[in-house]
Amino acid sequence: MQSGRSLSAVLGWGIALWLIGYVLGIGLFFLVPPTLLGWVIMPIGAALTWVVLWRRIEFRHFADYAVLAIAWTAIAVTGDFVFIVKALHPPDGYYKLDVYLYYALTFLMPLTVGWLKIRAPRLLAH
Fold first, then answer.
1. Whether 55 contacts 103, CB under 8 Å
2. Is the per-residue pLDDT at 121 higher than 80?
3. CA end-to-end span of the chain, whole Å?
4. In the 3-class helix/strand/coil scheme, how is the chain assigned residue by residue?
5. How far is residue 98's CA from residue 80's CA, in Å, rounded to a whole number?
6. Which of 28, 49, 54, 60 is nearest to 105 (CA)?
7. pLDDT, tens digit, for every residue of 20-32?
């Protein structure tokens, strides 16, 4: 992993993607029932994350995508805990199926894109 560009990819995009979801949640809070909010935001966030991974993130090694997956998931879990669970105290709790799926996608998407960009072309070439 190259130190300067990698750090901005890991931290910058991780924080930016989390913040976009957070702002969407606040903006849609008055339009969407709270029980459906995560299900409405998730496809938007997943699509945006996929685009960022394909167009903005370039690593040479699959291990770098694994580090990215861990870092982005840690950013999401920490941001949610601090700025939603602790700050907003959701009355019905926060951690439900949609949140766990969101964390799983946050972890699996960088691994999937990394595999497709690095490993899949090598396997298909043989």
1. no
2. no
3. 26
4. CCHHHHHHHHHHHHHHHHHHHHHHHHHHCCCCCHHHHHHHHHHHHHHHHHHHHHHCCCCCCHHHHHHHHHHHHHHHHHHHHHHHHHHHCCCCCCCCHHHHHHHHHHHHHHHHHHHHHHHHHHHHHC
5. 13
6. 49
7. 999 999 999 999 9
Residue 117's domain comprises: 3-125
Distance CA 42, CA 36 (A): 10
Is the Cα torsion angle 51, 54, 59, 65 positive or negative in sign? Answer: positive
Q: What's the CA gap between 38 and 65, in Å, rounded?
A: 25
Distances in whole angstroms, Cα of residue 7 to Cα of each of 57, 88, 93, 116: 11, 30, 33, 22
Phi-psi region of 114 (alpha: psi -120 to 50; beta: other; left: phi over 0): alpha
What's the pTM value of the predicted model, to 2 decimals?
0.90
**For the chain, what is the domain count?**
1
Q: Give the largest CA-CA distance in the chain.
A: 55
